[in-house]
TrEMBL record:
This is TonB-dependent receptor. The lineage of its organism: Bacteria, Pseudomonadati, Bacteroidota, Flavobacteriia, Flavobacteriales. The keyword Iron applies. Its main location: membrane. Coiled coil: none annotated. Keywords: Cell outer membrane, Ion transport, Iron, Iron transport, Membrane, Receptor, Signal, TonB box, Transmembrane, Transmembrane beta strand, Transport. Residues 120-235 form the TonB-dependent receptor plug domain. It comes from Mariniflexile gromovii. PROSITE patterns: TONB_DEPENDENT_REC_3 (PS52016).
Amino acid sequence: MSKIKFFIYLLVMVNTMSICAQTSIGGTIKDSNNNPIEGAAIVLNTPSNLYSTTDINGNFSILNVPTGDYKLTVSHLGYKTIETPIKVDSNNKTFSYTLQTDLLNLHTVVVTGTFNPRPQLESNTSISTLNKKDIQQVYPQGTANLLQNIPGTFADASAGEVFTRVYTRGVSAAAEDDMGWYYVSLQEDGLPVSLVQHSYYGSDLFHRTDLTTSKVEALRGGSASITAMNAPGGVYNFISRNSTENLNGEIQLQSGIQGEGNPLYRVDGVLGGALGNNWFFNAGGHYRLDEGARNTDFTFSKGGQFKFNVIKENSNGYFKLYGKYLNDYTNRYTGLPATNWNDPKPAFGLDFNSSVLMMPEFHANIPDGRNLDNTISFDPSQGVDAKDLAFGFDIFQDLGNNWSFKNNMKFSSKSANWQTSISNAFVSISDPTVYYLVSNGNPFPVGQIVFRDANSGNELARIDNSGIFSGDPAQYLTSGTLPNDAVMGTSTWYKDNDADEFMQQFTLRKEWENHDLNFGIASGFSDTLVYTQGSFAFSTYENNSRMLQVTLENPGEPVMALSDAYGVSNYGGLFFTNSRANVTQLATFVNDRWKLSENLQLDLGVRFETIKHKGSNDRFAPFTQTGGLDGDENTAYDNNILQPTGEQDTFNFNYNYVSYSTGINYKITDDAALFGRFSKGHKAPELNYYFNNFANVPINKKGEVQDINQVELGLKSNFKDVSFTTTLFWSELKNIGVTNFEFDDDTSNIFYTPIQFNTSRTIGLEWESVYSPLEHFAFRFNGVIQNPKATKWNIYDAAGSVDTSDDSTTDYSGNTLPFNPKLMFNVIAEYNKNKTASFIKWRYMGKREGNVANAFQLAAYSVFDAGLGYKINSHLSANILATNILNSDGLANFFGANSFGANANGATSEFIEANPDASFVVVPILPRAALLQLNYKF
């Protein structure tokens, strides 16, 4: 044989032997109940990390594995990870394992609040995880409703899916009402949902949870100061499903009944799998039609979203393209009147569980104050139409020599159009305010006022108001009356919000034997516009109000229209904001995880952040043409339209600050660790500072940066039958800017009071625990006990007028911080065996102060939820969920006295003592609801 032939023969033999030396391996992954685990990740540590995921039967396979020795890793959220050496040869190709439950996911890798992913047990932060099972146990009523299951998190979802409040550890002072996510970051896959927020524009508008969500990681305080953009209070990161080796999917059909029989219909779907050549995809979303938890004459919510990601993997990392399209209409519930300050009960014949005080559906055309040649189509049944078109790129690559980088960037175009009512105060027909608001007293209607049903045209009441200035009540002139002898003090609340945003975080990582160094940059840019217009509207003060067409019909005089045919009055005369802003956020950070010994690790991080706000507010003035916009002196409703004067007040301010955080983790055993952390963070003002506080005045001062100091000390333990984490914390918030929304009865001006800068402090203990005494039973107990204090607190008293000569401030230092319970917890009992799964949950919300004066308390309440599921076969399952089973009428919020322009801080002890029978406004929690789910997996 020649040398060439011998070489060719040898080459063929070597390749043949190489091919023959490859095999395929497979096996099954089950839990301790011998049930297959779907979606478990199996990784074989080859140079290119061969891997697979289990199918619906728990089976996996990996093709073309060269024979040899490997380390096999099996992991799944909610179970302890297995790492074991294996030998692959022709006689050893099947590997089956049983995963033990990780009761609190302490061995699960977390990516939130850290620059280098690590098991939760090894982190030095207070972090919790909700997996897919946890998410499926919650009735779908919005993001905040889901987060009520996170220990230490105060979440108020009483208004519905949007207009919610979420905060932790007493870091809450500016997170009230229309700015409810002020201190925390709501994220999707590691980047904020929205970069900016201001009144009625928050991140919850653009976020929905569905089957595309894999898990939620919740970080409370701590390292949020150095890992999140301008959000020192915490991070709530919703992580999407990612790639799977095998094609699989899920369809979920849901039908529910809420309150007094209002239906909910919803369909969710998700599909994922391989596209070949290391390409993978996942896509899904949902659509729903929801009549709402309370009785309205319109559909409360409708719409949905579509999300996707496509991943290309290589031997050194991955590239991911992802996107989302959200187009959703929803509304928010306003407060309800109550009486009896000591034990609030619904007033005026309303019911806490079913009633609403909101304008009904109607279709009006209101002049657009920006350009009076145009009109705005207004329909309060629309609520808020939120749209979000977003796409991003996430890249990770191993550069070799223990260097790697990760870059996550996202572009989005958002819009939120509000068409709803603001305020629903009781205004007596004997109160001059209701007539002044027709056109800010130009003219003031005196004499015979006629109220007609705007839909039917039928006369409801005819009154004479000419005696109200001498203290006499308005007199009915016919047998017809208005419900409760009042109209609802409300406004058509129209807001146009648009924002184009880009955000990005780049991290470069270098690992040594004892150091894990991460440094990088984060950036965000937002170009945002906001327009707000408000008109007074006449409607009855009753459940499911009716719009009122109102006229002045004095004998011998022409009829004067005080409202249009739909009941809208004082076109565009109550509110006007036309503003724009460019926001630039830049940050650079460095973090070192220093391994001091085998069991002791130190975490050191620092972040420099600069935020620039540049924009302008339009100045405005009333339209002054004789007879108003239409030139008709007998139509009073268009005499006071606010419009731009052409002048603008500009702002251009920079906020620079350094935040730092240091933590330590001591690993006692493989299943127990101690941790501690100190953090100093900051919160720059949001755009509402400029939009709300400088109406027709120069913006000559930038806002104050709030300072937050936090200390925490915790223990994490994971044993066979019990797991728990407990964290002792101290937090201090300084430079809290506080202002109140006020109404001047004499001039009909609506204004914000001068800002007062205050300080709060909270000490508390959080805990999260699971106890599983028997194989199929588990008991979960989590919550917080805390002492929130307003250590330095002043409230500005405007004495009910714009005039500052009689103004004063009141010192409430040392009082309990409002809206923060001293105790709240969740207790859950679970039973899972074979094909059956069930749970019952008790959620307890402790007493809260309704204002910083501590003059009114929101009583403690309890909510009970339950669920039962049955796995019909390997593909089909059915579940029943019920929330607020006992129909608790707990109160979540307090808005103060039931009068136009009132606020919670006005209800002082002196006010309550002087007005013991007065009504006031509270916001009840959502009523009972039940849901049937059918899930089909394939």
